[in-house]
Write a structure and sequence with these properties.
Strand order of the largest sheet: 1-2-3
Number of strands: 6
Strand content: 25-35%
Radius of gyration: 17 Å
Helix content: 25-40%
Largest sheet: 3 strands, antiparallel
Distance between the termini: 41 Å
Number of helices: 3
Length: 143
Amino acid sequence: MSETTYTAVVTSTGEGRNGGRAISDDSQLDVQLGIPKALGGAGAGTNPEQLFAAGWASCFAGAVKRVAAGKKVALHDLAVIAEVTLHHDIDADEFHLSAALHLELTGIDQQTADELVAGAHQVCPYSKATRDNIPVVLDATVA
């Protein structure tokens, strides 16, 4: 049986991604939403893809650290760059997502980095939620 650890509660009001507002029940998140300039909007505010990318990048970084600790691998520097792309299938008039997670690590070799990324992808809740639902590319660069 699974025990509930935490539930985030966020309410989106107004026009959603087109000028709405998203606020968490504890007010720690309070953002204006807007259509990005790349989609013809004013670019005033964040958007769901940025918020999803921020959450996934943060969660994945924690998963990498967890896997590294389990393997007794010391990480010196870690950055996770998440790209979440919104696609529009014009023929079906449907939208879907794809993602890429790029990791930058120091102090370890490439094989270890690749193993940490693969392991993190198995334990990260965002990776689990998107597995077999959206295309995901993973890669690691060691400096």
